[in-house]
Specification:
2 copies of one chain form a homodimer. The first copy, chain A, is α/β, with parallel strands linked by helices and about 190 residues long. Helices cover about 35% and strands about 25% of the residues of chain A. Chain A has 7 helices and 7 strands; from the N terminus they run βαβαββαββααβαα. In chain A, strands 1, 2, 3, 4, 5, 6 and 7 form a 7-stranded mixed β-sheet that branches. In chain A, strand 5 and strand 6 form a beta hairpin. In chain A, helix 3 packs across helix 4. The relative contact order of chain A is 0.18.
Chain lengths: ~190, ~190
């Protein structure tokens, strides 16, 4: 089956996103894009990763050829009407995990598909439920796993995700960084 | 943090279960157990994997030492009050995927923890929603991925899971074969 007729370019340095694309049957080359991850303060929830996915697409440094499709994406953790970014240090990581402990939060991934002719964007939302974390678990996790490159200070696919996520409502792969089922659908129609 | 004081033995040949245990921070040795996967016909839903997890524990061929804890597990796909086993051939795989197409189903994993002194068992349930599959997608998947070792004829972590699962309600790792958050909790109390 010809599952993709495009020449895909993943505009991301994330090895997880590349792996998810490959596992979903899409071969792509990757080009990291420099884009400062700031956004207007009035943006809410899915508006933030959609804005950042567009911004990354705008910053792609090369002209797109006839058959090229650029994939850019951004994932945010959204809790109590606030976005949790990547933690800058151990204290911030600890504070984020204390906010997530024993509660549910939303993970939004915004995706933007860009060719020389058109641009389509979409997002997906997953609700993630965390068990109550002990102080000891939080400190163990931060010291051992150093989650400073992770929005919300945790990885769904690492120790924290495996031991402390008690329930998902939505797509697991969206939490990992790419809603592969929606991407598959949109690429077929693109 | 001392996350496990036991000497864990995984009674399974599944590389996925071993990987999930390691990712959850548990080192274990593995010993495949020969147990025929038949069960009494009156069993329903979670009763089936709980029965099979116990059966595997009973078939463990060595005496358990003081600090040993044997982990056995079984996962079933349950749809329309019927269990979907591993498909025996391409036709059966096709029929199973046609049953799952466009519908939701349940995945139950039963887990049994056994030491020389006691035995504890538990299960987890995840609801999985599938998009409508085309004939072309079903045939492509079966020929390319050969899902004959998979209950229900699909893997949550392969092409079918990534492109066609639109929503989960519950634990993703339970669908992969081990509800790691519950295992973590039970091992701490064992």
């Amino acid at each position: 089956m010809d599952i993709c007729k495009h020449n895909l370019i993943l505009g991301s340095a994330s090895p997880r996103r590349k792996q998810l694309l490959e596992d979903a049957g899409f071969l792509c080359k990757t080009t990291p894009i420099n884009a400062e991850e700031s956004f207007p303060a009035h943006l809410q929830a899915q508006e933030i990763p959609l804005y950042l996915a567009h911004k990354k697409a705008s910053n792609y440094p090369f002209p797109l050829k006839e058959n090229d499709v650029l994939i850019t994406a951004d994932t945010v953790v959204w809790v109590k009407n606030t976005v949790l970014n990547k933690p800058e240090n151990e204290l911030e990581a600890k504070q984020m995990l204390q906010i997530l402990s024993g509660k549910k939060h939303q993970v939004f991934t915004g995706v933007c598909l860009t060719s020389s002719k058109k641009q389509v964007s979409f997002y997906d939302e997953t609700t993630v439920f965390f068990k109550t974390l002990t102080e000891q678990e939080i400190i163990f996790y931060i010291r051992k796993y150093q989650p400073f490159d992770k929005a919300g200070s945790y990885g769904a696919q690492d120790w924290m995700g495996l031991t402390s996520i008690t329930r998902l409502e939505g797509s697991y792969f969206n939490v990992m960084g790419l809603p592969t089922h929606k991407l598959y659908e949109h690429l077929q129609q693109f």
